[in-house]
Amino acid sequence: MKRYVIISADCHAGPESPVYREFLDPAYRADFDEELKERERLIAERRAQTSSTNFVGDDEFKEEWFGEDEEGNSLHEIGLRGGWDAVTRDKELDADAVCGEVVFPGPDAVTGTMGAPFGAGFNPVATKSPGHLLAGARAFNRWAAEMCSQSSERRRGLIVAPLLDDLEGVMDEIRRAHGEGLTGGIIIPPRWTGHESYTSHRYDPVWALCEELSLPVHCHSGPAPQEDYGEAPGWITVYGYETIFFTGRPLWFMLLTGVFERFPRLRMAVTEAGSYWVPDMLWRMDMMVSREHGMRKLVGTRDVLRMLPSEYFDRNCAIGSSNTRRRELARRYEIGVGNIMWGNDFPHPEGTWPYTRAFLKDRFWDIPIDETAKILGENQAEFYGFDMGALQPIADRIGPTPAELGQTDESVLAKWEPLQAAGRPWLSECEAVAVAGE
Amino acid sequence: MKRYVIISADCHAGPESPVYREFLDPAYRADFDEELKERERLIAERRAQTSSTNFVGDDEFKEEWFGEDEEGNSLHEIGLRGGWDAVTRDKELDADAVCGEVVFPGPDAVTGTMGAPFGAGFNPVATKSPGHLLAGARAFNRWAAEMCSQSSERRRGLIVAPLLDDLEGVMDEIRRAHGEGLTGGIIIPPRWTGHESYTSHRYDPVWALCEELSLPVHCHSGPAPQEDYGEAPGWITVYGYETIFFTGRPLWFMLLTGVFERFPRLRMAVTEAGSYWVPDMLWRMDMMVSREHGMRKLVGTRDVLRMLPSEYFDRNCAIGSSNTRRRELARRYEIGVGNIMWGNDFPHPEGTWPYTRAFLKDRFWDIPIDETAKILGENQAEFYGFDMGALQPIADRIGPTPAELGQTDESVLAKWEPLQAAGRPWLSECEAVAVAGE
Fold it and tell me: What pLDDT does residue A52 have?
């Protein structure tokens, strides 16, 4: 059997903090030195306390993540080294069965003290000033272009594009970074605090540029209105619950106000925020726009959208569905099999690395082979322009076969037939049978 | 066959605007006179423009809602008159097959120029000052206690309780209004703008009082951060999409920070914000708290919750599932058949009045009779303390039989068996077959 070409739509890379200095515009280096000192101070303060990280997980997981193997390496150290060292990185991706990857910043989702300067991470927020943020973005983008030039057939790098303030400045940076080889797309801040939201036509020039350069727009998980959560015990679970919503928000702001009508070739992905919510989102949107009784007094999209929201979604959007759940796979005909892009979130502890082979077997054992191939790689290849021919030799070396994912029994597939036939039942007028997995 | 006792968990009542004057504390009457003048001015301004309402729906629906019948009545006028006149109200509820009702303020969801003083509606927001808001709440509560004393076996009135500012003042008002006969529960503002959110223990005295008086806490649809939407065409659909989330928000803030652990007999309902999202909410919460791999680095609820979130939900919460959709009924074993409380939203145009009999047939034709009885009435009776014995004679007169809802074919029920057996599949470890309806 042919081996799957697996592409992770969600990986993270970045150098050790001080390295960013040489990639920064000189005018910002002194301020970055101050930021580095502050990071050192934070690390020392934490070491003096009970824990050297912001890791509040259980002891078993701490041991797994920070404990050393026979060679004296912890998962944490391997991951961070793979964050900047392409050789380590390729070795880890190989072991994890991943041929290609989409590269976001921020390899260290543990200590919170590494990362691009001035808040220019996968969820960019100005920690000092908008000018500093854009300078930090330039530093990451320059570094990332170099990193992604190694094993370049395996990588698509993203451009950090903090577009809320200096629209012209960020467009210059998008053009520059694209020219340097970052062709995967741009990363925008999912929250617009103090600025116009993504219903505004103010951002149209950026969408036009992304359409022109074929750069998908990305929102990556992490954002939430932390100011709402207070300090009561349990607030962190509220954060974990809500960040899904606050990551996806720009998607429906843009979709429902006609961005994809005005820019028919613009593409957008929401990454590491699950995909389980997509069916209900499409159902609600389609019903609101078309024939929902409860919206009859408020119908307001007739002049804005010329297609159904689900049609724009299929044409323009995709989901970076890191660590895809059984429950999400069961809903794949409503989400759209062609819209789901699996990812391992390397090297974050909430992802599947270094256990991806086991996770894939657990999740995909009863999913048809052609659909598995799409979700694990073909969708990513189409969305990001990977050359599947160039990746196949890597897959022949490291990729799992369907049998290795437990996809051995054709008879289990019959259960999906009514679901597949119904597709999106609110459009097919056919009530579907769905497997509601874990 | 026995006729269904139907109770609407979502109805609205209120007098014509000037009537509130006599129910207001004298000190606030002059300011209310000013507010009335402003409302008049708004109405006149709109009349001078194209439309006398904020109704932007299609022409067909406008004709249906505002056009006159042979007796010269429009649906809009009948609804508003039923808003304050108990005789008209009972007649309309009878015609709509509804025996009992839970009473929120705000019968007029069309012009936006009626309603309790100073923002004290079903989604209370201070339009003038916190003191004014509480005065407006008292005025509504006094009026509602009188209205609900007519056909009292049919009504449970809710207390408007704007608790964000003057905690003691609002607790006094809850005690007073409860003493006057409003025993259905309290209505809190779903948004806490500028105040501590519902993760805060600051509101514990109110929860303690509600537990003591057996008053469920309510959030009703409508809220959203309108400041985020701007003015671009299509923004109103974004609002319609998001108000579901912003109505339910206090539920997960309270649940995940242990309010129902600290107040085990406190109950809470989220009303007119759908119920389709409840299965995913419970799944996500349970997974986060128990064994979700992606949350292992952040586990933070161990000291806050002693049960699974879904267990608190079953014990303490319910959904005012106005105009329940097929898609929601298909998920009833995950939501919990005992947690869904149907409502007709009388007299709002987004509800099912005056077409409830047709809607029920369309939605419930293949739902088992015992489950239909729960969702349409028994759950509400238990949650709000209606006397089903007192309502049965009304049902014998106006209630539909199962046959009238099309529930004639026992053979259709077999399709639900695997779903029922699986319940919540993430807990039963049994992947369920679900009907994903419209």
Answer: 46
Long-range contacts of B284-288 (CB under 8 A, 24+ apart): B284/A241, B284/A244, B284/A276, B285/A237, B285/A241, B285/B252, B285/B255, B285/B256, B285/B309, B285/B310, B286/B310, B286/B424, B286/B426, B286/B427, B287/A438, B287/B426, B288/A237, B288/A240, B288/A241
Distance from CA of A146 to the nearest CA of B (A): 30
Residue A71 CB burial class (10 angstroms; 0-12, 13-18, ≥19): exposed
At B216 the pLDDT is 98
Residues of A in contact with B236 (CB under 8 A): 298, 300
> B238, A199: Cβ pair inside 8 Å?
yes
CB contact under 8 A, A289 and B237: yes
Reported as a single tens digit per residue, the pLDDT across B397-414 is: 999 999 999 998 787 888
Which residue of A51, A237, A303, A312 is the best one to mutate when testing the B interface, meaning the one whose CB has the most B CBs within 10 A?
A237
- The mean pLDDT of A82-93, rounded to a whole number, is 96
Q: Please report the beta strands in B207-361, taking only residues with DSSP state E, as ranges in sequence order.
A: 217-220, 268-271, 317-322, 340-343
Per-residue pLDDT tens over the stretch A269-291: 999 999 999 999 999 999 988 86
Topology of A7-413 in CATH?
A: TIM Barrel (3.20.20)
Q: Please, what is the angle between helix A86-95 and helix A75-84, to 10°?
A: 120
Return all residues near B434 (Cβ < 8 A) that are at least 6 apart.
Answer: A433, A434, A435, A436, B330, B331, B334, B419
Give chain B positions within 8 Å (CB) of A252.
238, 241-242
Which of B231, B239, B241 to mutate to probe the A interface, most A CBs <10 Å?
B241
DSSP state letter for A111: S
Q: How far is B436 from chain A (nearest CA, A)?
A: 5
Dump pLDDT digits (tens) for B334-346.
999 999 999 999 9
A355 with A65: CB under 8 angstroms?
no
Yes or no: say if A9 and A271 are a contact pair by the CB < 8 Å rule: yes
Q: What angle do CA A236, B300, A249 make, to 5 degrees?
A: 25
Q: Which chain A residue has the Cα nearest residue B257?
A: A234
Shortest CB distance from A237 goes to which of B300, B334, B351? Answer: B300
What is d(CA B81, CA B278) in angstroms, rounded to the nearest whole number? 35
> Which architecture does CATH list for B7-428?
Alpha-Beta Barrel (3.20)
